[in-house]
Amino acid sequence: MFIKKLQLNNFRNYESEIYEFSDGINLIMGKNAQGKTNCAEAVFLLATGFSPRARRDKQVIRYGEAYAEISATAQSRYGTLSSKIQYYKDSNKKVTINGIETKKVGELLGNIFAVFFSPTELKLIQESPEDRRRFIDISISQLSKRYFYALSKYKKILEQRNNLLKNPDRDLVLDTLPIWDEQLSLYAGEVIFWRNDFISKLSPAAQKAHAFITDGKEVLKVTGASNYQGDAKEIALEIKQALADTVERDLVLGYTTVGPHRDDLKITLNGEDVRVFGSQGQQRTAALSLKLAELDIYNQHFGEYPILILDDAMSELDKSRQQRLLKLISGVQTIVTCTHVDEDVFDGLECKKFVVEGGKIV
């Protein structure tokens, strides 16, 4: 898959601009704060509906404007695809997929698919389990809308259960909890089943990518922290029992202590926890390897590679690892943002270059 055209109107610092990408490497160059990352963000938004930077939709609207619009045309093995998102200062956003308007942002998933990596992805390694769950959830959601909707329903029911646990009327809580637990365990079973399947594919793919980038000097391993195995129905039954077993603890704490919202990934390098013992360079390469593993998983699932977005990521690697990375992603449409490039690294590779200043291609 590759994006042919990206159009930005009143998006971040762009007034109106069109990128026409090649199906290989696309270099977006310029000084800091000129709009390089804004372009990368727009591509990922059109693929997933998620922003790697904005907490609120209205943050992407150009200062002083009432709306913003981003749209893209892509080519896949199945034909031409299109996605469009319109953001409004005073109303909800609109999503249009292949010419049809939808109210569900989740419908973007699986249309244009992409993998995003930037230096901030170090939080995958360094920070909380929530960051690692977010990585898993966005990745699986692109593979399966069913997962996305099951996760959304799980989160809503979990919030309602937690609110109930805070109710001072103990008899009411104990009478009502089984109703919520029945629904919560059902969606928990689906979520955990999909995550287990994804991690079983992620670990060998990440290990392979990491070994290639490091020239076999380090061994990366990824495992899930969930104790629940089996199919979705079997896991749901285990979760339902676990919820019943921990009800007294949950009542004391005022929140649900078991379920996929407590999951984490364990990432080791040569047998040691990379979060604790890895250098920043090793952590960065480990995070990049997880993202590169997504390429293989998507290719297995869809029969083609996604779009790879490397936002200011090349400068964080030494020259040898840059060259190995570029060799590994041969045949994948890649959007690379950078302030400058080492021409030697790109020797023999065809690249389309864009220079950006103040939200304009110059």
Low-pLDDT runs: none
* Outline type: globular
Classify the fold: give the CATH topology of the largest domain.
Answer: Glutathione S-transferase Yfyf (Class Pi), Chain A, domain 2
Q: How do the strands line up in the largest sheet?
A: 2-1-4-5-6-7
Following the backbone from N to C, one meets helices and strands in this order, namely EEEHEEEEEHHHHEHHEEHHEHEEE
Query: For the terminal residues, how far apart are their CA atoms?
Result: 27 Å
- The Cα radius of gyration reads 22 Å
Total of helices: 10
Total domain modules = 2
Structural notes for this entry:
Helix content is 43%, strand content 23%. The protein has helices at 36-48, 123-126, 129-143, 145-165, 170-213, 232-245, 247-253, 274-277, 280-302, 319-328, and strands at residues 2-11, 14-20, 25-29, 67-76, 79-88, 94-97, 100-102, 114-117, 220-224, 265-269, 272-273, 307-311, 334-338, 351-357, 360-361. It is of the alpha/beta class and 362 residues long. The strands form 3 sheets. Strands 2-1-4-5-6-7 form a 6-stranded antiparallel beta sheet, covered by helices on one side. The two termini are 27 Å apart. It folds into 2 domains: 1-113 and 306-362, P-loop containing nucleotide triphosphate hydrolases (Rossmann fold); 129-303, RecF/RecN/SMC, N-terminal domain (Glutathione S-transferase Yfyf (Class Pi), Chain A, domain 2). Helix 10 links the parallel strand 12 (307-311) and strand 13 (334-338). The longest helix has 44 residues, at 170-213. It has 10 helices and 15 strands.
Topology:
Layout: E1 2-11, E2 14-20, E3 25-29, H1 36-48, E4 67-76, E5 79-88, E6 94-97, E7 100-102, E8 114-117, H2 123-126, H3 129-143, H4 145-165, H5 170-213, E9 220-224, H6 232-245, H7 247-253, E10 265-269, E11 272-273, H8 274-277, H9 280-302, E12 307-311, H10 319-328, E13 334-338, E14 351-357, E15 360-361
Parallel strand pairs: 3-13, 3-14, 8-12, 12-13
Antiparallel strand pairs: 1-2, 1-4, 4-5, 5-6, 6-7, 9-10, 10-11, 14-15
Helix pairs in contact: 3-4, 4-5, 5-6, 5-9
